[in-house]
Amino acid sequence: MKKLNLLAGALVFSLTSLNGCAVTPPPVQTSTQPGKVAVQPIHNPPQVIYRIDKNRYLTLEDYSNCDDGSIYYHNDNKKIKTKLWFLSRGTMNYKGKFIWAAKNDDMLAIPLVSGDNDACGDSLRGCAYSILSASNDGGKKFSDIKFHASNSSNSKDYTIIITDDAIYIKSVYYDAEKYQTNSAGEFYNVRQAWIQDEFYKGMLKFGVPEDVLDKTNPMGYYDRALINKYHYTEAQVDELGVKSLALFHTLNNSSFTEKLPDIQTSNLGSSKFSCNTTSLSSQPKNQG
């Protein structure tokens, strides 16, 4: 299959922005030294770390410090309590704006960001991007939307907005990205989907047979099939490559860009995550 090298480089992030990686919680720590008794962590009382409105909020629970608890979504009016994540460290690392404008209980999301000094091989997030763990069915299923913040300090440049029907991610250095869900309930990048769809239509207008286009990779096509099945010459294949690159550049540089929705944040609750450390209980040392 002929891969458009420039296209692959330009879209490697966007085409792999979504995945459903399952992360296994860390094992319980026990003492391996003879005569030592493993210390059970002291769990502090739940605290609100993000308030959406009067009746909806996020809490930190089962924690000894701000980085090691579980995060829950609450709607007191509907008696809803949904676990969003098992380890709060990644969420507390996020320092950008987080605006929860959704009014339903279906669209849920939580950012997960590496610390400034985390190792590059961090199994939770890696080192080149961060994750927004998002659900559009009230927490039954979560998908991972990747965004470019490489660490906690870098995340200060970001704004994330959750609405009833879409999620927006904006950096001060990039245009906003809008994510919606398809009929299968999967999140997709709206602008990239438009580019892929228009590219596919443009290739058909160039006379490329439909069975040559790679539907699993909308920016690719099988040049061997053009030669072997449709008797294209090498010169014709090369000419098509030039035309397809030009088509991609036109679409990628188009004025089709997303903007953040105009939301009156004064009517909302929090815009950042916060954890009160003054009331945290101190942990006892191992006894032995």
In short:
Residues 1-22 form the signal peptide. The protein is an alpha+beta fold.
Q: What would you say this structure looks like, in words?
A:
- The protein has 288 residues and is α+β, with helices and mostly antiparallel strands.
- The protein has a domain at 42-189: Lipocalin, CATH 2.40.128.
- 18% of the residues lie in helices and 22% in strands.
- It has five helices and 13 strands.
- Strands 6-10-11-12-13 form a five-stranded mixed β-sheet. Strands 1-9-8-7 form a four-stranded antiparallel β-sheet.
- Helix 3 packs antiparallel against helix 5 (234-252).
- 27% of the residues are buried.
- Residues 1-6, 8-17 and 19-31 have low confidence and may be disordered.
- InterPro entries: Tli3-like_dom.
- Residues 1-22 form the signal peptide.
- It holds the Pfam family Tli3.
SSE run: HEEEEEHEEEEEEEEHHH
Shape: elongated
Q: Give the overall pLDDT as a whole number.
A: 83
List the uncertain runs. Answer: 1-6, 8-17, 19-31
**In terms of structural class, how would the helical and strand content be classed?**
alpha+beta
Query: What value does the Rg take, in angstroms?
Result: 24 Å
**Largest sheet features:** 5 strands, mixed
Question: What is the fold named in CATH at topology level of the domain at 42-189?
Answer: Lipocalin
Question: What is the C-level CATH assignment of the domain at 42-189?
Answer: Mainly Beta
- N-to-C CA distance: 65 Å
User: How many helices in DSSP terms?
Assistant: 5
State the share of residues found in helices, binned by percent: 10-25%
Strand segment tally: 13
Under the CATH scheme, the architecture of the domain at 42-189 is Beta Barrel
Percent strand equals 15-25%
Strand order of the largest sheet: 6-10-11-12-13
